[in-house]
Amino acid sequence: MKKVISIILSIIILISLLGLTIIININIIMKNKTISKVASNIKYIDLVNIKMKENELKETYDSIYISLQQEGISRENINKIYKQDFFEKITTKIIYTEVKFLLTGNISKTYTINDINNLIKKDIEKINLQQEEKEKIIKILNYNSSKILTIENIIRSNINNISPTKIKIVRYFLSYKFKVILLCLLIICILIELVLNKERLLPYIFIPTIICSFLELLISIFTPKSITTNIANKFLESILYPYIKIFLNNLLFTSLIILGISIIYLMVNESVMKKEKRRLKPKIKKKRLDI
């Protein structure tokens, strides 16, 4: 009976640790600072050239580039525009707002058309162009600023089309309450294992941690391939993939830490066991001689 309880507790330790590390790493990439850092490394001009089946999201994004092109703005100057902070700030805001809404249900303040127009003016003024050219570009982008909000509305609409039950489950799993439950389960199970198995902790605590680290390694290695296979919208994939990559890298790092701690404990435990055997052998021999 004791062994059965210990095995059940070990399974709970495995599930709790796996769930806790995954949720914590998801929460890390949800931070505005992380989203902004990744968004600053995206080449936004390349998103226009993605060859794929047209959809509402891509058409809206491409229309901004087409408007600049149709008004006679050179390819060189368009490249300069797309390298400014404007697209990074807009992408950060949209992703942060919509991911937070999807995963937590919280609604953050979004950019207004005036906010977008102010960002456009500030960025275009930094480009080394003639004032007349700058004013022309600002006018074109101001005309298209409503399309930025359209992109956000398209994403929000797609989120709202997801089954409410699925969204509730995702939000519950990523909630602070669920993290506390997992942490409490983990601590309680470890404490019970300590009481039940004072001399045989290794199989019941550190085998689950090692399995957890290997599972996370597998997730971090094989998930990228499944994402590229299953996401049909290549435009959306190009934007989201860098964030998923950060999550998987963090998960890989976490798994290596857990594995490292487990291996260090095993080495220390093995060293202690050897010392104990050396101490016990003379005592056993002495007892035998006394007999």
Largest sheet: none
By secondary-structure content and strand pairing, the structural class works out as mainly alpha
Question: Count of DSSP helices?
Answer: 11
What's the total count of β strands? 0
Percent helix range: over 70%
Helix/strand order: HHHHHHHHHHH
Described by the principal axes of the CA atoms, the overall outline is elongated
Rg over CA atoms: 28 Å
> Ranges with pLDDT <50 over ≥5 residues?
none
Percentage of residues in strands: under 5%
Instruction: Note the gap between the termini.
Output: 38 Å
Average pLDDT taken over every residue: 80
Protein architecture, described:
This protein has 291 residues and is an all-alpha fold. It contains eleven helices and no strands. The protein has helices spanning 2-29, 32-39, 56-70, 75-82, 85-104, 113-124, 131-160, 164-173, 176-196, 201-230, 234-290. The protein is elongated. It starts with a helix and ends with a helix. The model has no long low-confidence stretch (mean pLDDT 80).
Relevant terms:
mainly alpha; elongated
SSE order and pairing:
Elements: H1 2-29, H2 32-39, H3 56-70, H4 75-82, H5 85-104, H6 113-124, H7 131-160, H8 164-173, H9 176-196, H10 201-230, H11 234-290
Helix pairs in contact: 1-9, 1-10, 1-11, 2-5, 3-7, 5-7, 6-7, 10-11
